[in-house]
């Protein structure tokens, strides 16, 4: 059974809903999924998991949340090289540019990017299916 950490920050609940859907996808494939708030995750927890999903909504000018999520992510990113990682998050404006930038950053850090999912606001039926698919990929 593959153990997956689903680490997220959510301001309105949209990204948290996505995290829960990814966890359902992991569990549907027989994996173990732990939902972890960004403030509760750090390098000391990496060895307990085989794959990871990091979730953060678009903030400000298409950026990652910078008080809790980004400091945690900055700390663990160099330790994720070669590990399977998925990215996810919600947005309310623009077109998802923050995710494209985040994907480029992750690949540049040597992360094995499994895939990413974005949702406009609360996950609709399409985003729900994509989150479940993402969870299943992480559990494989």
The assigned CATH architecture is 3-Layer(aba) Sandwich
Q: What is the first-to-last residue Cα distance?
A: 9 Å
CATH top level?
Answer: Alpha Beta
Outline = globular
Please count the beta strands (DSSP E, at least 2 residues each).
5
CATH fold group: Rossmann fold
β-strand amount: 15-25%
**Reading side by side through the largest sheet, how are the strands ordered?**
2-1-3-4-5
User: Regions with pLDDT < 50 over 5+ consecutive residues?
Assistant: none
Domain module tally: 1
The CATH superfamily appears as: Flavodoxin domain
H/I helix tally: 4
Main beta sheet: 5 strands, parallel
The radius of gyration is 13 Å
Helix and strand sequence:
EHEEHEHEH
Mean pLDDT: 95
């Amino acid at each position: 059974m593959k153990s997956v950490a689903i680490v997220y920050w959510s301001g309105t609940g949209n990204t948290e809903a996505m995290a829960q859907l990814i966890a359902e996808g992991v569990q549907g494939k027989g994996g173990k999924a732990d939902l972890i708030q960004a403030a509760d995750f750090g390098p000391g927890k990496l060895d307990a998991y085989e794959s990871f999903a990091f979730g953060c909504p678009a903030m400000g000018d298409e950026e990652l949340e910078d008080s809790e999520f980004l400091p945690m992510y900055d700390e663990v990113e160099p330790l994720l090289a070669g590990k399977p990682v998925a990215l996810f998050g919600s947005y309310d404006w623009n077109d998802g540019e923050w995710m494209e930038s985040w994907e480029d950053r992750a690949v540049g850090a040597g992360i094995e990017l499994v895939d990413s999912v974005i949702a406009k606001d609360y996950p609709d039926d399409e985003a729900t299916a994509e989150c479940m698919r993402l969870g299943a990929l992480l559990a494989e």
